[in-house]
Write the structure tokens for this entry.
Amino acid sequence: MTSFPTIASAARDIAAKRISPVELMKDHLARSEKLNPALHAFIRFTPEVALEQAQAAEARQVSGALRGPLDGIPVAHKDIYETAGVTTTGHSRVLEHHVPKADSAVVRRWREAGAVMLGKLATHEFAWGGPSFDLPWPPARNPWNTECFTGGSSSGTGAAVAAGMILGGTGSDTGGSIRAPASLCGIAGIKPSYGLCSRTGVLPLSQSLDTTGPMAWTVEDCALLLDAMTGHDPADPSSANRPRPDLLSGLNGGVKGLRIGVIRHFHEDDCKVSPGMAAGIAHLTSTLAAQGAEIREVKLPPMADFNAAGWLILAADAYAVHDSWMREKYRAYGEFLRERLALASTITSADYIQAQRRRRELCEAVAAAMRDCDLLVTAAQPGEARPIHQMTKWASFEVPTFTMPFNVTGQPALTVCTGFGAGGMPVGAQIVGRPFEDATVLRAGQAYELAAGWRAKRPAMAA
Amino acid sequence: MAQPLDKAQFDALMARAGLDLTEAEKEGIRAASAHTQAAAARVRTPREVSVESATIFTLKGAGA
């Protein structure tokens, strides 16, 4: 039986000198290299970087100079995060040979905290075009069933964390790209408040929606990773100039007295979810209620309204990012992304501004609803992971997503595993907080996760 | 569901974008334009002309 450390447990063992950062790195690199031919979670390993960083962590361990809970922890980065001297492609032929000179801000912060980079992870092309089979690297597969979709766009991070290849990794979330793979791969992932974490050095998709964030096996590990990501960055115009939040000291504070609003019409009327997802939401709310939270129902504008505004903004922003490359090297893109971007070119300036006006109205509507509750709960996905070959080019537009509403509003939103549904595939629900109340979101997720017990089960292929 | 863009409109937009597509590609994308047309209609809720966009920003002066 394979043992799967969490970041928290590995950090305790490193601090107590019970495990060696070099051995921990070698174990995870070997596991990753063994599983990757089936999962395609990594598109590039960086063993030299990993060895150098793990040896440095081990030297700090020996000398009693550890930098904190991430020192010596094996991680990897979604391949839209620029890494100094390491090719960063966006999983695209367009940037197949792009070697950045500097680390993105988040990569630098994790590196300075002592994290050990094993490599670069698969993503949907430039965080929007996938799952695609016509790119230089194949799409990541779901470790719970390799015939199934991981969710995206942080597909490699979802697969790698679930399979125990890494203890945590970076994701990015513009319309759900952290929370969707977290749900379908049965892990935890938080889209922090817009502006909480720097995006400097991350290949953009939609600057008015893009959010960087962590993904890990547990909520506690997400809190540890996020804690090392926050802080004002003057180089990022979206970065909030606020004090760094305390995400850790109240993590185990429980949910007694918290008012939690369930957006029932989202998953019962606006987009009916699978029985497994519905059971997961019910389990989440009943578990939190049993711990003293007050559960109530909340009504928001229709989910389709958030999706209409969000997808118009995302698509128009993305087209602006890719405009010149689209003219110069259209055929270098995969079919899914180039045709989605071609469609985006038909959005008018009036459509875009009306979407931004609707966005302001929707933000005000959610803020009003949250005057009487501290958190919201909704599904993270309509159901369990579907076969990867059933995913269609226009899926984003065909079915409203449960995640986009909180990109539109910028609120923090966490996916936590809420059990297993059809085919033994995991399901996850979202816990959503007020802007910059990420700590409350994590506290509720931690309370649920510890009570629920789902973290004992890993994908069979990883065991 | 909204109607997709008509062929003349769509061809003009692709030409303006500088995209050289096959006829089959054009038809696939044009059909999908029904989704963006529906979204564009949905964000046009009744509102006063003075309603602000979420892109409005606060000017920062020297020393901010």
Summary: The mean pLDDT of chain A is 97. The two ends of chain A are 6 Å apart (CA to CA). The CA atoms of residues 132 and 293 of chain A lie 42 Å apart.
